[in-house]
Amino acid sequence: MKIVFYTGPQCSLCDLAELELSKTAMYSALDIEKVNIRNDANLYHLYGARIPVLKRADNNREIGWPFDSSTLEIFLQ
C-alpha cells in the first residue's frame, strides 16, 4: 500500500509519527513517500498547520497527528 507522508524539515512531531508508523504490523509492506510540504506552496497551504499527515493513495483517506500505532492499524485496514 502506498502512503504519502506529508512532513517538513526539523519536524519533531513528524519524527514521532514515523516512530508510531514503524510499530505497525504492516510497516514492511508499506510504500512510504515522504513529501516536504515546504517545496510546494499548495501543499504548504493545505498541510502547514496539520503536519504530520499520512494519506492513503488507494482511497485518499488522511490521518493527522496525533495518532498512535493502534489508530494507524485501523487506518491501514
UniProtKB/TrEMBL annotation:
<keyword id="KW-0413">Isomerase</keyword>
<dbReference type="InterPro" id="IPR008554">
    <property type="entry name" value="Glutaredoxin-like"/>
</dbReference>
<dbReference type="GO" id="GO:0016853">
    <property type="term" value="F:isomerase activity"/>
</dbReference>
<dbReference type="Pfam" id="PF05768">
    <property type="entry name" value="Glrx-like"/>
</dbReference>
<protein>
    <submittedName>
        <fullName>Thiol-disulfide isomerase</fullName>
    </submittedName>
</protein>
<dbReference type="InterPro" id="IPR036249">
    <property type="entry name" value="Thioredoxin-like_sf"/>
</dbReference>
